[in-house]
Amino acid sequence: xxxxxxxxxxFASNCYAVSADGKDALVIxxxxxxxxxxxxxxxxxxxxxxxxxxxxxxxxxxxxxxxxGAKVWCGEKEKPLFGSEVDxxxxxxxxxxxxxxxxxxxxxxxxxxxxxxxxxxxTPGHTSGSVCxxxxxxxEKALFTGDTLFCGSIGRTxxxxxxxxxxxxxxxxxxxxxxxxxxxxxxEEETTLAAERDSNLYMREA
Length: 206
Fold this sequence. Notes:
The chain is α/β, with parallel strands linked by helices. The chain has helices spanning 34-41, 62-67, 89-92, 164-175, 193-199, 201-204; strands at 2-6, 15-19, 24-28, 45-50, 71-75, 103-105, 110-113, 116-122, 131-137, 140-146, 149-150, 153-154, 182-185, 191-192.
């Protein structure tokens, strides 16, 4: 499994391109229009966009990739929040860029995309429909946590539909995942599930 991070310039989230063959890619949270150009430089073709939640700083590059043929996915509980006040475009005064959610996944649902097994985990707390994606390529696993779990921290719970109670339950769920695996968060640096179990106070107390 090939994983490439596209770091934001300014205020936006990390974006990740994930590929089994080095050509066709799943793109998680394309946060800026520049993502399309970076994918081209990497010689990746975006086949699917996987969104962890609706906040604008995770989605602003989605329209360009959709116009190029990528199919856009999210969790079924988050879909109604796209285009609402929850997406924070108005809250931060950001210019709205519309796109269409074409497919949704339910909690625990698995699907094969571009030769990779993708499992959606509903992890509310940052928003009510926030999700993480567990992606597997044979024995190799990686967890993409959006704004649920960060290195040493967690996402905010004080925006629309956020809930600290839900966040604690979501952290318990992640803590109980078997084994260790790399964790790719929406902001800051990568970490591992074992490191967060050991040193992340929020996860330890969940």
